[in-house]
Specification:
By secondary structure, the chain is α+β, with helices and mostly antiparallel strands. Helices cover about 15% and strands about 40% of the residues. β28 and β29 form a beta hairpin.
Length: about 450
């Protein structure tokens, strides 16, 4: 019966005991992400139409055109599209490779399509229109000109004498340089972009497309005061483009604009084609410089300590740290005695010592006086200050260990390694400090 009752009690105790989850401390870093919007600056030029007419592009948005490549057709009468629809025999059959490219473009689009960015569907349509015109072989048809001429259809192919990347959009900022950037440019209410779509009527002398002639480009963005100190010594930054989920490293420097604002300049050679249509681009700067021990914020707690000015600290005969406590004998004569004391932490002003329990009879207690060794000045023990820490459970019960924070985000904190009375890598700490108290036995 005794054994049975013991088993029942043990099972009940195990089933109803509070579960305390632990966390094994690793080394790590925090990725600090700060969002910005920059204005893109490229080597680019707007190309104007030589004559008025209806435009159909041969080259897709963001694709590269070689010197002498046909970029678009100019249909002055507006009859070309209807005639080609009625005469499909003028178009050559698509090759297997061209069909694969179309399928790949459609598949890639379907995987990344977002209903909140429905306009991207129109961009795909315009790109497919350009692909269809390119794959139809009309740009190289030798007899098409004579056929259309006999029908009174004024049709011409326009080529480029400069290699570069084609964009259908223009905004008047094609000649912008970094030194011209001011805060007024970031007011999107004043920004206007014109997009030429296949089949649009374009007047002579108006921009028909934009030609980007270099892979090198820059992002210029304003820097607030709280970021100046963080970025002041940086020469290279890791950045992440939010819309495309792409990351790269960019050269970094700063300048003071004409309006007195401090601007950052990111210089890079990647992803220019992807953002060829965009003037304003959102991105994040990622900083992972701070390394240490990585702990969850939920594991952090606080503990109060007595604080004593550093100049009251003394050294005993055996070289141990401590303080001289003021004593008074039965005759009322005042003296002092040395009390060895563990210094839990020391900063520029104070020594932090444990607040003793009733069982610690020889420790410094509340309202006792200590004496400064140099001149006998008295200080009453009493002021307290909190330290951040965690509960270490390596020994099976909760022991408070201090932490020295370096950096923190919403979920984790990076703390210094090898601090006195601190934690070390691979230590086990309580994951939720609010669920336990110091000295509590914990089953892992």
């Amino acid at each position: 019966m005794v054994i049975f009752l013991y088993i029942v009690f043990s099972v009940y105790s195990y089933a109803t005991r509070q579960e305390v989850k632990f966390y094994e401390v690793p080394e790590g870093t925090l990725v600090r992400q700060t969002s910005f919007t920059g204005i893109a600056i490229r080597e680019e030029q707007a190309v104007n139409a030589e004559k008025s007419g209806y435009v159909h592009f041969y080259i897709q948005q963001g694709k590269r055109a070689a010197v002498g490549s046909n970029v678009y057709t100019m249909d002055e009468t507006g009859s070309l599209e209807a005639y080609l629809s009625d005469h499909p025999e003028l178009s050559s059959e698509m090759t297997d490779d061209e069909i694969r490219q179309v399928k790949y473009s459609l598949s890639s689009f379907s995987k990344t399509f977002d209903n909140l960015q429905f306009l991207a569907l129109y961009d795909l349509k315009y790109s497919m229109d350009a692909s269809a015109l390119e794959y139809a072989g009309l740009s190289s048809a030798t007899d098409l000109d004579s056929i259309l001429s006999k029908l009174g259809i004024s049709f011409s192919r326009i080529s480029t004498d400069t290699a570069g990347i084609i964009s259908y959009s223009t905004d008047g900022d094609e000649q912008l340089v970094a030194d011209d950037v001011t805060s007024a440019l970031f007011d999107l209410n004043n920004y206007k972009q014109t997009v030429v779509k296949p089949g649009d009527m374009v007047e002579a002398g108006k921009p028909v497309y934009r030609l980007i002639t270099s892979d090198h480009w820059q992002l210029v963005f304003p820097i607030e005061n709280d970021m100046k100190e963080i970025l002041q010594d940086k020469k290279k930054l890791s950045i992440h483009f939010l819309s495309e989920d792409l990351s790269t490293d960019a050269d970094f420097n700063t300048m003071t604009g004409k309006d007195g604002t401090t601007y950052g300049i990111l210089s890079m050679h990647e992803f220019m084609e992807i953002f060829a249509e965009d003037r304003f681009i959102s991105f994040e700067i990622r900083n992972t410089d701070n390394q240490g021990l990585k702990i969850p914020v939920s594991a952090i707690t606080k503990k109060d300590f007595f604080i004593i000015p550093k100049d009251f600290l003394a050294t005993g005969d055996g070289g141990e740290n401590g303080f001289y406590r003021q004593t008074t004998n039965e005759a009322g004569v005042t003296g002092s005695e040395f009390v060895p004391t563990e210094i839990y932490r020391m900063d520029d002003q104070y020594c932090y010592i444990n607040i003793p329990t009733e069982a610690e009879t020889n420790a410094l207690k509340l309202n006792e006086f200590i004496l400064r060794e140099s001149d006998g000045t008295a200080y009453r023990v009493g002021p307290v200050k909190s330290l951040d820490g965690v509960y270490n459970i390596n020994k099976g019960y909760c022991i408070f260990r201090q932490i020295v924070p370096i950096e923190q985000n919403a979920d984790y904190m990076i703390v210094q390694e090898n601090t006195e009375y601190g934690i070390s890598v691979y230590d086990h700490i309580v994951l939720n400090a609010a669920s336990v108290k110091e000295g509590q036995v914990v089953y892992q």
